[in-house]
Amino acid sequence: MSTARLANPGKTRVCPHCRSEILASANVCPACRHHLRFGLNADQQALKTFSALAVEGTLTHPGPTAWEYAVVVSVRNERGEETARQVVSVGALQPSEQRSFSVSVDVFTPDADPPPRPPPAPAQKAPPSKSASAAKTSAPAKPIPGAKPSSTKSGS
């Protein structure tokens, strides 16, 4: 029997360190990265997280005057309705300055729902297999790494 606290999917709580709203099932706060649970079960649950989306970009300012920027994150449901919108950061870019931005969506999967596998690479067509007797007569011997080469000359 597991002693882990099972939460309803999507249930939230407040991080005791930074006061950000986080998932109740989180072992580490995604905002401040403080550990929230300890023990063997917490370590095992931490391995069940993967990044379903990761986007990174860099903004370089080439102009002669300063630019101002606002980083806005919005979440939409399947009908296109905005369910959340938040300004994450604001700032200014002076000429020749640059900023890099990263956005990721981390997903927690319970034991019954493993992370999706990446699509398989395009299959390369393998040459037709030869029968064991044909392979013995037509295939040259392959050298064994580290073995001394043998002489094939007769009468020595």
What order do the SSEs take from the amino end to the carboxyl end, as H and E? EEHEEEEH
Q: How would you describe the shape?
A: extended
- In the predicted model, the low-confidence regions spanning at least 5 consecutive residues are 1-5, 129-140, 150-156
Strand content: 25-35%
Q: How many β-strand stretches?
A: 6
The main sheet comes to: 2 strands, antiparallel
What is the end-to-end distance? Answer: 74 Å
Q: What topology, given as strand order, has the largest sheet?
A: 1-2
Provide the gyration radius in Å.
29 Å
Give helix % range: under 10%
Query: Helical region count?
Result: 2
Mean pLDDT: 73
Q: Which structural category fits the helices and strands?
A: mainly beta
Write a structural description.
This protein has 2 helices and 6 strands. The chain is mainly beta and 156 residues long. Mean pLDDT is 73; it is low at 1-5, 129-140 and 150-156. The strands form 3 sheets. A two-stranded antiparallel sheet has the order 1-2. The protein is extended. A hairpin with a 5-residue loop joins β4 (67-76) and β5 (82-93). The protein has a domain at 12-112.
List the helices and strands and how they pair.
Blueprint: E1 12-14, E2 21-23, H1 40-46, E3 49-60, E4 67-76, E5 82-93, E6 98-108, H2 132-138
Antiparallel strand pairs: 1-2, 3-6, 4-5
Notable characteristics:
156 residues, mainly beta, 6 strands
